[in-house]
Structure formats: structure tokens, C-alpha cells
Amino acid sequence: MKLLAMEAKLHLRDWPTLMFSIGLPVGLLLILGLSIPSFTELQDTGERIVDTHMPSTMALLSLLTLSCSVLPAVLATYRQQGVLRRLSTTPVHPARVLGAQLLINLAVGTVATAVLIVAGWLAFGAAPPRQWGWFVLVFLLGTAAMMALGLVIAALAPSAKAAQGIGSLVMFPLMFLGGVWLPRELMPEPVRVVSDFSVAGPFAQALKDTWAGQPPQLIHLVVVAAGLVVFGAIAVRSFRWE
Asked: Which residue ranges does the record assign to the ABC transmembrane type-2 domain (predicted)?
């Protein structure tokens, strides 16, 4: 608990990163929703874009930022500066640092998603996720898969700068495949097939389905769970403390 409190204090001191992780998705939701009239108009499905698509993709954006940029950079910095090596000589195992970072980033992602829900409700009258139980399950499963991917990036990066570069190379394609820039429904069929197996695509679609009041599709849960297993196994086998 002391280690978690210390890591949380260090994380809060880096307020630009914190504001970027939380403020960017919320700001995009408000700016796009208020400036583009079609986002607040009813679609053929009976839903508005600000009701389901925008909040679910902005939640994905926040989690991708934390997983592909923030988490790998912090762990790579600790390894580069010898923090993890020093901890290995104490009763506090370095794995506890890793666990603390995962919990902190999960907390930040949860806060960002909660702020998205409240902002959407206050600004546009958008309802919170209607399938609440499924939404929590999908959120935790998808976040764990994204964090496992972040640990893989942290394992491969030789330095903090490299972690940021590799994270950007991974994050932006996943943003596209997750429908942040182009809704999955408008993607060409070959691109949508790639999106269906990118983990980010099924995660975003499952979030959107639960937001709209539908249970997630089983195939989407299977792909996200498979991503968690694969990324987690690679991270465990390749992660270096020094």
C-alpha cells in the first residue's frame, strides 16, 4: 500500500500526462458533439452518435493512451535508471512496482470513462451504458488486454524514448482499427476483418454494444480474452527488470 501511494503521488505530479489521458477524450467528445450537428441527430438505428459511438471510442482512446504510452514509458524509465535493479536487492520485489502501475493506470482509465459518461449526460443527455453488468466485464477484460500489450511494449523498449516511439507506432493503428477515426461500419470489408482480430476493434464494438443496451457478441469477448492471454504470456516471458 505504501508503494502504491508513492507511485500514485508520482503519477499525480505528472499532471500534463494525466490531463492528456483524461482531458483529451472528454474534450474531443464535447468539441465534436457541439460542433458537428449530425453527431446529435438520430441515425437510422435510432441512436445518436454521441449516445454510443463517441463515448465508447473516446474510452478506447483513453485506455490506449495509458497502455501504449504512459505505462511503457514509466516502466522503461525505471529500468533505464536502475530503479528496478535496486528494488531487486530489497524485500520489495520489483513486481510490486509493476502491480502498482497497473492499478494506477486502471484507476485513471476508470476515472476517464466515468467523466465521459457524466459529460455525455450533462452536455447531450446521453444515457449511461444500458447493459451495466456486461459493460463492467467488457471494460475490465479489454483494459487488462490493453495493459498486457503495454507491458509487451515496456519489455521490448530499451529506453524511455524508445518506449514512447514504439507505443506511438502501436497506438495509432489500433486507434484506426478501433474506429476512433472511422466508424467500423464504414470500413471496407478487408479492413473490418483486420479490425475484428485486432483486439482494439472487438473491444470498442463490445463497449458500444453494451452502451446501446445489447450484450456483447461472444466472438468479440473471445478475441479480447485471447489478446489478454497472448500479450500477457509474451510480457511475462520477455519482461526484464534490468
From this structure: 16-242
**Smallest Cα–Cα separation from 33: which of 2, 9, 55, 61?**
55
Give the span between the Cα atoms of 241 and 6, in whole angstroms: 19
Q: What cell numbers appear for 49 in the block?
A: 452518435
Give residues with Cβ within 8 angstroms of 68, minimum separation 6: 146, 149, 150, 153, 167, 168, 170, 171, 174
- Mean pLDDT per 10-residue segment, the chain (242 residues): 82 78 87 86 79 88 91 88 81 77 88 91 88 93 92 86 90 90 85 90 92 91 94 85 76
Q: What angle do CA 136, 71, 237 make, to 5 degrees?
A: 95
b/e per residue 6-45 (b: at least 16 CB within 10 A): ebbeebeeeeebbebbbeebbebbbeebeeeeebbeeeee
Give the separation between CA 102 and CA 82, rounded to whole angstroms.
20
Cα separations in angstroms, 197 against 7, 110, 192, 208, 219: 34, 24, 9, 17, 10
Among residues 221, 200, 223, 220, which one has the least CA distance to residue 62? 200
Reported as a single tens digit per residue, the pLDDT across 160-179 is: 888 889 998 999 999 999 88
What is the distance between the alpha carbons of residues 187 and 192, in angstroms, rounded to a whole number?
A: 6
CA atoms within 13 A on the CB side of 127: 11
Alpha helices in 41-82 (DSSP H): 53-65, 71-80
- What pLDDT is attached to residue 213? 87
